[in-house]
Design brief:
By secondary structure, the chain is an alpha/beta fold. The protein has helices at about 45-60, 100-105, 115-125, 185-190, 190-205, 215-220, 225-250, 260-265, 270-280, 280-285, 300-319; strands at about 5-10, 15-20, 30-35, 65-75, 75-80, 85, 110-115, 135-140, 145-150, 155, 255-260, 290-295.
Length: about 325
């Protein structure tokens, strides 16, 4: 007898990729994790196809059929064409590839793609900290800074797919220069690239060509380095201001702050939330649940699974 359907969720990152078999209730049955460019530069697509093949095989071993494949990609995604329109520099080989069509043709399984933080938010909303809420905001603080919004049970992608770009939410008038060319963006203070760049500027160091290392700044702050503590204080204040602005503008039930940077911020969670309250309308702040949660790559596969369920329902409604 064939067991109930499962879903495949894949989370594609610039350095690591994870995929999993997930039940429609959000239980993770099997996970595969590997380097995104396991076989060398430009091989992210090969890695993705291999992960999907592995999970299809594992589902077959378990006697389970697959109801759909959902993939979260870092960048701006055209959900209806199933294509990454603008990705990060390290994943140019995935840009403008008809990924959903290619996987459907290869596997015969319905496939959906979206921005990785959109998928992450759908996972939190359906299975995680936002379960049962009508509105949810997710901030993902990594090397860059992404965001996603669920309002009244609908993922807000925006007119051109840029909905939730909180990395460019202004938190400081005429502040630091952001990689986008604007000044005072949240990402310039709370993303890994912004934290590392400010540390380098204040200490007179220059990037040796390696990726920005915000972890080194957190370590220095933890060891009592005054300059590092000042940089992290700026990060905390910028994040607090952004949280206040989000609460005031959207009045969400839940805000989840996650990503690699959050591990370093958890010790200051009470201070961040206290400062956020100073930027928030008093009537709103106490009714919004705010969580700081370090990211777990083995759990993010639920986002792709939730994307499948969300898109199947949305398209059935639209038909």
């Amino acid at each position: 007898m064939t067991s109930p359907d499962v879903l495949i969720g894949v989370d594609v990152g610039g350095s690591a990729m994870s995929g999993g078999l997930v039940t429609p209730g959000g239980d993770i049955l099997s996970v595969v994790q590997t380097g995104t460019h396991y076989e060398g530069p430009g091989t992210a697509l090969d890695t993705l196809l291999r992960i999907v093949d592995t999970l299809v095989f594992r589902a077959g071993e378990r006697g389970q059929s697959i109801a759909g494949i959902g993939i979260g990609l870092p960048g701006i995604v055209d959900v209806d064409t199933g294509m990454l329109q603008k990705g990060i520099e390290r994943l140019t080989e995935l840009t403008e590839v008809p990924l959903a069509h290619r996987l459907e043709t290869k596997t015969g399984i319905p496939t959906f793609v979206d921005n990785d933080v959109n998928a992450l938010a759908l996972g939190e909303w359906r299975f995680g900290l936002g379960r049962g809420a009508s509105s949810l905001v997710v901030l993902a603080l990594g090397t860059g800074l992404g965001g996603a919004i669920v309002l009244d049970g609908r993922l807000h992608r925006g007119r051109r797919g840029f909905g939730g770009e909180f990395g460019h939410f202004p938190v400081s008038f005429d502040g630091r220069l952001c990689v986008c060319g604007a000044r005072g963006c949240l990402g310039a203070y709370a993303a890994g690239y912004g934290i590392a760049a400010e540390w380098q500027r204040r200490t007179g160091q220059r990037d040796s060509g390696s990726a920005p290392d915000a972890e080194a700044v957190f370590r220095a702050a933890g060891n009592g380095n005054a300059t590092a503590r000042e940089v992290i204080e700026d990060t905390r204040r910028a994040l607090s201001a952004a949280l206040g602005g989000i609460v005031n503008a959207l009045d969400p039930d839940v805000i989840v702050v996650t990503g690699g940077i959050v591990k370093g911020l958890v010790p200051w969670q009470d201070e961040i939330l206290c400062q956020a309250g100073e930027h928030t309308l008093a009537a709103l702040f106490g009714s919004t649940r705010i969580h700081l949660v370090p990211i777990d790559k083995s759990q993010t596969v639920r986002g792709g699974a939730a994307l499948v369920l969300y898109e199947q329902a949305r398209r059935a409604e639209r038909a």
